[in-house]
Amino acid sequence: MQYKSKNKLRIITGENAMYRHTPLHEAIIYAAKKSGMAGATVYRGIMSYGEKSQIRSFRFFALSQDLPVVTEIIDSEKKIIEFLEILKKMMEKCNEKGLITVESTSVIQFE
Predict the structure, then answer these.
(1) Does the structure show a pLDDT above 80 at 38?
(2) What SUPFAM superfamilies does the database record attribute to this sequence (predicted)?
(3) What's the whole-number mean pLDDT along residues 34-55?
(4) What is the CATH number of domain 4-107?
(5) Is 4 within 8 Å of 104 (Cβ atoms)?
(6) Which end of the chain is less enclosed by CB atoms within 10 A, N or C?
(7) CA dist., res. 35 & res. 47, Å (int)
(8) Which one, of 65, 66, 61, 83, lies nearest residue 74 by Cα?
(9) How far apart are CA 51 and CA 54, in angstroms?
């Protein structure tokens, strides 16, 4: 098997975060596609807490869930760094905070 060294950009926000009347995670995916990133996926979490220690979880009768949403983007280090500038502007424009990480990863298969 052949491995390719890439980087993974992970953005964790709430599902209620909006960017220009569009869910932020959706806007990030479209921006990544437009930027020619190799691939991106969005995961919806079932429970989380962050810096403010506010626990977010699914509650059947709650009016607003705001569950965690994880967006992962895979590409070269150079392209990830370039995309971080776009992401920074998006996050500032919608006044959204979230957790953003970058880590090295090995791609085994890409189709």
Answers:
(1) yes
(2) GlnB-like
(3) 84
(4) 3.30.70.120
(5) no
(6) C
(7) 31
(8) 83
(9) 8
